[in-house]
């Protein structure tokens, strides 16, 4: 089997797979979630049996639909990706992520109550994974926040962060296609850690900033280098794949030591670590809160390490047919195919 076919069969959800492969479909959903959720480095060839803690669903939140339903549901997935619970029908939790964040649910109580909920095998559930959040009030990205990214552009390390915005209509899911818009000829990529705000804040001190965070997720900040950043370069439809889940901050004890990587067609293009950020997450929240009010559900994109297509020699921009894989330690993995705008 070719490398591209292996990636295709093992990374995409069952609604992408031909009907002839029905026998493999039952186990495919579980395999997808295990790829998305368990991206810890492997240090031993010996298989380790998951602990009870890994099997129980945790505060790793996803939005999804069952079967052919149009109803959006909110659920939690276990650390090993094998088990899930639906929150929207078995608790007082809201049926969508934005409303759930506004509820200010106590995570300790939620984790304690999981044992009394119906725990399902992901393998047995017919579901479609949606973006874990799809209607944030603000999406704010920081420019040049990694030293190696500045080096590859031959620019000085900034003394203050500069920001850009993206629009919510650019959001797409962790397994959805990215459209290569006909107006965009130089489509670039950049895997980033995304911060999801949990509480309203203004003029917050750096040492208090992380208390206002709800959780973290993987994003791929797609942009058209040949288009104005203000008028479409950052915000074309499907230019913000995110997910696969939002991992609550209680499961991310040190956000400043997570590895990041991007693969395009199996080739490693980006590899970095959040410890190399110029402006750390707490400082970014502090600085932004001095300019504007950050609200629950707002998303902050924290920058990308070196390796974007524009700064490779020769340049290497995305084109239809490319498969881009984005991964951050402990947060998950995304697989997005670039397709023609006419497909």
Any descriptors?
343 residues; alpha+beta; twelve-stranded mixed sheet; globular
Task: Classify the helix fraction into a percent range.
Answer: 10-25%
What sequence of helices (H) and strands (E) makes up the elements? HHHEEEHHEEEHEEEEEHEEHEEEHEEE
Net shape: globular
Class by SSE composition = alpha+beta
β-strand amount: 25-35%
> What's the total helix number?
9
Sheet with most strands: 12 strands, mixed
Q: Look at the structure and give the mean pLDDT.
A: 85
From the alpha carbons, calculate the radius of gyration and give it in angstroms.
19 Å
Q: Report how far the terminal alpha carbons are from each other.
A: 26 Å
Poorly predicted runs:
1-29, 41-48
Number of strands: 19
Topology:
Blueprint: H1 3-11, H2 22-37, H3 52-55, E1 57-66, E2 73-78, E3 83-86, H4 97-103, H5 107-113, E4 119-121, E5 127-130, E6 139-143, H6 147-153, E7 162-166, E8 171-172, E9 178-179, E10 187-188, E11 191-197, H7 206-209, E12 213-220, E13 223-224, H8 229-233, E14 240-248, E15 259-264, E16 267-273, H9 281-291, E17 299-301, E18 323-328, E19 332-339
Parallel strand pairs: 6-17, 8-14, 9-19
Antiparallel strand pairs: 1-2, 1-5, 1-14, 2-3, 3-4, 6-7, 10-13, 11-12, 11-17, 12-14, 15-16, 15-18, 18-19
What does this protein structure show overall?
With 343 residues, this protein is of the alpha+beta class. It is built from nine helices and 19 strands. The chain has helices at residues 3-11, 22-37, 52-55, 97-103, 107-113, 147-153, 206-209, 229-233, 281-291, and strands spanning 57-66, 73-78, 83-86, 119-121, 127-130, 139-143, 162-166, 171-172, 178-179, 187-188, 191-197, 213-220, 223-224, 240-248, 259-264, 267-273, 299-301, 323-328, 332-339. The strands form three sheets. Strands 1, 2, 3, 4, 5, 6, 7, 8, 11, 12, 14 and 17 form a twelve-stranded mixed beta sheet that branches. Strands 9-19-18-15-16 form a five-stranded mixed beta sheet. It has a two-stranded antiparallel sheet with strand order 10-13. Strand 2 and strand 3 (83-86) form a beta hairpin. The longest helix is centred in the N-terminal third of the chain and has 16 residues, at 22-37. It starts with a helix and ends with a strand. Residues 1-29 and 41-48 have low confidence and may be disordered.
